[in-house]
Each structure stands twice: as structure tokens, then as C-alpha cells.
Write a structure and sequence with these properties.
The chain is mainly α and 168 residues long. 55% of the residues lie in helices and 5% in strands.
């Protein structure tokens, strides 16, 4: 899998900057997983944590779906891996494959990009049931950058534990 990661611009409008940072972090997660087998991607961190790189990819597919499709897009779709709405199911990568997880994640990223680009402005709002309030597309994009940055930090440690690779 060839992963291209483009650094965000130094000068840009707000929407272009948010979009670029989000895509940068999406590409970073893909780079953290690059070159690993399904077994390596499923390898869990130290007990008691069950976190794995593949679990993070699956989780981020859920997060993309939840914020962009379910909240901003107001689509009535279940989570990717849990019809009951249990976000924790995505973390369990037992038996999961790179092909399955990445296909789902990439599909959700494409949905997210379409929804963001179709939105009139960053001021578009929608109701976020888990938060119990209206949120703007701006907040969703910032929250997604935060989610990826946090989980990419986890991915740093997970990847180092798999094969010693650091950085990216």
C-alpha cells in the first residue's frame, strides 16, 4: 500500500487548513500500519490494554461515520461493526484483516470528505446525540483532528512494539 502524506500548508484559509490537517493525520495513521501483516496489525499492546493498530483503524472508521455521516449528514446508519451502537466493538480486531478494516475506513473517509465539501460552510450545525447539543462542522473537523492526533500517538507506541519502527 503506497501512502502519500502531504504536509498542511503554512498559509491557507480556515477550511482548507482544517481539511489539510485532517488529511495529514489520516495519512499518518495509514503510514503507521504500512508494511505490516494482518497478524502484526492485530498485535495487542501490553496488558491489560487490548489496543492494536488494526483496532485503531476500525475505531477511526466508526468515528468518521459517527461524526460526518450520522451527525453532520444526519444519516440513519448503524455503526460499522455494531448494530447496537457499541463503539468498543471496533477495537476488537480478533480475526479482522487489513483488507476489511482499511476498506471500511477508507470508505468512511470518502463519505466524510463528500459531506464536508458539500457543506455550505464550517458554520453548518447538526445535533450530536452523544453530546446532547448542536455542533458545527468546524467543531467536528477540529474534534476529528484531535481524535487522530491522540490515536496516532497510540499508534507510535504500537508500531514500535511490533517491529521497532519509530517516527513517521
Amino acid at each position: 500500500m503506497a501512502v502519500e502524506r502531504i504536509g498542511p500548508p503554512s498559509i491557507a484559509g480556515e477550511r482548507e487548513m482544517l481539511r489539510a490537517f485532517l488529511d495529514y493525520h489520516r495519512a499518518t495513521l495509514a503510514l503507521k500500519c504500512d508494511g505490516l501483516s494482518d497478524e502484526e496489525l492485530r498485535r495487542r499492546s501490553m496488558p491489560p490494554s487490548t489496543l492494536s493498530l488494526l483496532g485503531l483503524v476500525r475505531h477511526m472508521a466508526e468515528v468518521e461515520r459517527a461524526w460526518f455521516r450520522r451527525v453532520i449528514g444526519e444519516e440513519d446508519v448503524p455503526l460499522v461493526w455494531s448494530e447496537e451502537g457499541d463503539y468498543q466493538v471496533a477495537y476488537d480486531a480478533t480475526g479482522a484483516t487489513r483488507a476489511e478494516a482499511f476498506a471500511a475506513w477508507q470508505a468512511e473517509v470518502e463519505h466524510s470528505r463528500r459531506i464536508e465539501r458539500a457543506a455550505e460552510s464550517l458554520d453548518v450545525t447538526a445535533y450530536a446525540p452523544r453530546w446532547g447539543e448542536e455542533v458545527s462542522l468546524r467543531l467536528v473537523m477540529l474534534h476529528m483532528i484531535h481524535e487522530y492526533a491522540r490515536h496516532n500517538g497510540h499508534a507510535d507506541f504500537l508500531r514500535e512494539g511490533v517491529d521497532g519502527t519509530v517516527g513517521v
